[in-house]
Structures are given as C-alpha cells and as structure tokens.
Amino acid sequence: MADRKECIRSYKGEMVCWRRDFHKHPETGFEEIRTSRRIVEILEDFPGVSVVKNFCKTAVIATIEGNSDGPVIGIRADIDALPIVDQKDVDYKSQNPGVCHACGHDVHTTVALGVLKYYSEHRDELKGALKVVFQPAEEGPAPGGAKLITDSGQVDDIDVMIGFHTNPDHPVGTMLLRRNEMLASADNFIIAIKGTGGHGAYPHQTKDALMTGVEVYNALQNMLTRELDPVKSTVLSICSFNAGTPKGTNVIPPVVTMSGTVRTFDSEVRTFVLKRIKEILESVCVLRGCSSEIDIETISIALKNEDDMIDIFESVGNEVLGAENVSYMELPEMGYDDFAYYGLKSKASYFYFGTSKVDDLGKITFHHPLFDVDEECLCIGVELLTGIMDKITENMEV
C-alpha cells in the first residue's frame, strides 16, 4: 500500500525524536517510571486511544477500536533497559549512569507508538481492535513483566499476540523467522552450601563446603551428559562460584555460594533438570556432612511460534522488504524472551527484524555498550506490523 508507506515515512522525524528521548533516559525493570509517563504523554495526542496505566508497577496498555468487527490483536513492546554503561559518543547517549538501552527496547516502544499513531489516523483500516502492551521488565527481575501482565487479566480478550525484536546481527531491511521453538525457557538458581570451616592444615576437623561445592558442580554437569537425551538441547551453566578470600591461604571456608542458569526448549526436560538439581545438591551435601539452600527463579517458559502466523509474517516480509531479505533461523536460540507467556493466553508468535548499521554489522550485538540501530528500522517496523495486522484480520474473516 503505497499511501500507507508514504504516511508512515512521514512519521520518521517524530519517531526518531521519541526513540532518542527513550534512549537518553533508560530505566531498568519495574523502574520505568519516566518511560511509562512519556509513553502516556505521547498517547494523549492520538485520538481514539484509551489508556490503562499504573498497573503491574509500570505497565501501560493502549487500545484503539476499529470501525468494524474483527479480532482483538495485541502487540507487545518491552520498555526496560539494561544495567550497562553506554559507551557511545552520540547526543542521545544515556543520561542515566550505568543504564543503557542495549537491546533495542527503545525501538520497540517507538515502533509500537508509530503503529498506534497510524491507526488513530486511519481507524477505517482497523477491524476489531488493537491492544498494545507496553511491558516492563522483560530483562527481569523475576517474575518479569509478561508473567504479571498475563496474570492480571488485562490481556485475556486478545485473540492474537504479536511479538517483535530488533536484531543487530542482521542489516536494516531484513526479517528473521523461526517455526516452532525459537527461544528457550530460562530458570536461574542460587545455591548456598554450608559446612564447618577451619585451618587448612587440619581438613579432617572441617566439613569442607568448598570440596562439596566442586562435587556438586561436577555432578550437575554429569547429569546433563548422562541422564538427558543428547538430542534435547539443554544448557546448565554455573556462572558464579564463590568461597573464601584470596588471602585466606590456610583457611577452609565454611560457606560456598554458586549461581547459574538452565535453558531448554522442552517443558518435560525443564521439570526434570530442576528436580535433579535439588536432588543432587541435597544428596552430595548429606554425603559430605554439609547443609544446603537453593533458590530457583523462573524467568520465562520457552517461546514457540505458530506455523500459520509465521506464514503471515513471511508473506508480509516478502511484500514490505522483498523475499530476498526474509530468512529463517536454522536453529532455535538459547536466549529467552518472556513474551512466551502471552502464548498461554492467546495465539502468539514472534519475529526479528534487522536493525544494524552497516559499519556495526558483525561487530556490535545484543547487550553491547556501543549498541545502536539504523533508525530506518523504525518505519520498517511500523510497515511490518500494520501489514501483519491486515493479514491476520483477513485470515480470521475466512
């Protein structure tokens, strides 16, 4: 639709301003107070948009009704930033020390606002309703924004939910898709092992928490390789292991802590691994005369796409970007996105769109302190989402 493309392109200057404002003022999960306020301020200029705010801490939901019957289509835009120092030399560099939009959530927020702006001016093109969820805390902390929002009842009326994400590993003007499993589940854990410390010369007088921790570490890795079907990809990474002090060369420490993450695509494997972590920890500690504690936080379930929605995404991508610029992921990724929770409430699927500047391609990826985007992606994102909404509505009318 040439007229739509031209209209969306006319928003570019305004969208760039929005995006750079969000980028200059990043806020981490559940602390997006200014971000939410700014979203609401922008929405006040869009006729026909109703707003729900001040729920699930910092979430905002914007709804616009079409002029005829049709499905309720949802779009998720995450709004949180990361605890990363922004190292870019640009005038929209983060003004919040130690916090940076290094994953493109400022782009998601801006694109979703662009979609709302378009339909507020063209309600005749909207059948049913559009509900945009500006979600906090995709990056955490647990339980994350999606879990709170889906539990709140605010999205129960959505028939189809669309998720989208910047991809700095692909150039602007491209789209990346995946059928079925796309992103893993994520569970984080913190373990404490308590023994009896003592003198390094008299280990027989201690209950060695450090040695016990090493045994637990090895037993967990052995569990992955000997108890799980190797075809069912699973990651269990111990990412911290702390005991004693560098100067305590003759002190056996009384406490060891370790923390890590579990990633998988299979819900049964996930349940099994979490159960075995607890069992292994307890049994090894009993064997060595130590006690233990474990805290497990569920961050996200696995994200799986619907085939018919991926067909729609591909069709729209071909129209907007050209078939040569639409590709499929060969394998799913062990990263997560809590967008997966919306799939428990409605038909939901997710795509990547390329956002990299030419000079950054292959050098600067997700969560990098120099993360930035080619702002051409803003209008492209709006074109893709409005096109997808058209196709979803057409398919649901058949």
Output mean pLDDT.
97
What is the helix tally? 9
Overall 3D shape:
elongated
Cα gyration radius (Å): 24 Å
Major beta sheet, strand line-up: 1-2-4-3-5-16-6-15
Secondary structure: number of strands: 16
Helix content: 25-40%
For the biggest sheet, the summary is: 8 strands, mixed
Low-confidence stretches: none
Secondary structural class: alpha/beta
Strand content: 25-35%
Order of helices and strands: HHHEEEHEHEEEEEHEEEHEEHEEH
Distance between the termini: 21 Å
Describe this structure in words.
The chain is of the alpha/beta class and 398 residues long. The protein contains nine helices and 16 strands. It has an eight-stranded mixed β-sheet, sandwiched between helices. α4 (105-121) links the parallel β3 and β4. The chain is elongated and about 80 Å long. The two termini are 21 Å apart.
Q: Briefly, what is this?
A:
Helix content is about 35%, strand content about 30%.
Short descriptors:
16 strands; eight-stranded mixed β-sheet; four-stranded antiparallel β-sheet; alpha/beta; single chain
Topology (elements, then pairings):
Elements lengths: L1 H8 L2 H13 L8 H11 L5 E7 L3 E7 L2 E11 L26 H17 L5 E9 L9 H8 L7 E12 L3 E3 L2 E4 L1 E10 L3 E2 L9 H19 L6 E10 L7 E2 L2 E10 L2 H22 L2 E10 L2 E3 L1 H15 L4 E3 L18 E10 L20 H21 L1
Parallel strand pairs: 3-4, 3-5, 5-16, 6-15
Antiparallel strand pairs: 1-2, 2-4, 6-16, 7-14, 8-12, 8-13, 9-11, 10-12
